[in-house]
Amino acid sequence: MEITDEAADNRRSAPRPTLRSFNLSPIIKMIRLNSYFCRALLPAILIPANNLFAFAQYRDPRYAPPAEDSIFTSVWFYAVLLIAAGAAALIFKIRRASASFDHPEQAPDGLRLSYKERPAQKPVISERLQAAAATPQPVKKGFTNLPVASFVRVQRSNPYAQLHESNDPTLLKAIDESNVEIEDDASVRMQALKLLSGFRTSNSVAAIAQMALYDLSSKLRSDAVLQLAAIDHESVFETIVTCCADPTREVRASAARALSKLTFDRAEAWTRIVESGALARMRHAARAAVEGALVRRYFDRLVHKDRKIAYEAFALTVLLVRSGETEQVFSALAENRDEDVKLAILHVIQCLREERTAEWLDELLTRHNLSPSIASKVNEMRLQFQMHPV
């Protein structure tokens, strides 16, 4: 169809359609552009769509073809297209957000984190409660909770089986050869000691004890003490204690080792010396324990948590008090750094209730500088003995 000049002039004079832009704010508000994906995808869709929409509205009358009805010239087509694109972007965003919550390396807004999030920790309060429930209650400390505080007296010792005496000719010959007054040769006495160690009899033990105490050779005395420990009978105890005060260091060391190797009850051995009632015997054993540095170690064992060890120290302290060898006792009360040890020693004195106890306590206060707690305990004991004399 030819376009006449009049028709062309009418089209030129017709008002040009204005450029209308589509209002996208409701869709943008609906999608809530928060993710990186939507910010990159939606402009790429919206800008060309908007341009197409504007181009569809604008037609140059000089080149415009005849008006025809088409779906692409409809405004609603582009509106539906934009709504579908926005809905797809919104669905993608929701799925991406849900996936980011399942994986710790993704943040809720879809951005990758530059660090790893820490795993969820258990509540602190529940952990503390569980720890408090699982932790045992602390043991009460103090002198009254120690085993020594429950001792009120030394228990009566049990009798032990005595060794028999032997008249074996070989044994009798070895006994004679072990005597330093009969045999001067140390090598012969050494051979006799080896023979005596093969017999477990009362006369063989007595001969070995004589060598441990009086032989001129320190080597023989040391070996004899160890042989007594190998016999391991209650009758060798006092000899080993006496050897702890030997003038030779070698013998003292052997006696200390021998004392620790004994398997019978040493507390009963100390008690038997006290039960004998022989003052000379008690003083001899007490002085040997002092000179052999046994007393200081035993004072520390008074506060031991093992009842057997504490009772052995209790028995030795009773021996010191009963024999009158109290110098080490008073020194420990004045100089020992452990208050529980001092209280344990005072507890032993209080249990014994000797006739000289009040005199000892007065001497203790006047001659020694005691700590306030120990001085208070001593005054309490003095008042007790004044009210209830022995």
Task: Give the structure's gist in a few sentences.
This protein is mainly α. It has 19 helices and no strands.
What does the secondary structure layout of this molecule look like, with pairings?
Layout: H1 5-13, H2 25-31, H3 36-57, H4 75-102, H5 124-134, H6 169-178, H7 186-196, H8 202-214, H9 218-231, H10 237-243, H11 249-261, H12 266-276, H13 279-291, H14 294-301, H15 307-323, H16 327-335, H17 339-352, H18 357-367, H19 372-387
Helix pairs in contact: 3-4, 6-7, 8-9, 9-11, 10-11, 10-13, 12-15, 13-15, 14-15, 15-17, 16-17, 17-19, 18-19
Structural class: mainly alpha
Low-confidence stretches: 17-22, 104-115, 122-126, 128-140
Radius of gyration: 53 Å
Helix content, binned percent: 55-70%
Q: What fold name stands as the CATH topology of the domain at 163-264? A: Leucine-rich Repeat Variant
CATH architecture heading of the domain at 163-264: Alpha Horseshoe
In CATH's first tier, which class of the domain at 163-264 applies? Mainly Alpha
Mean pLDDT: 78
Q: How far apart are the first and last residues' alpha carbons, in Å? A: 151 Å
Largest sheet geometry: none
Count of runs of 4 or more consecutive helical residues = 19
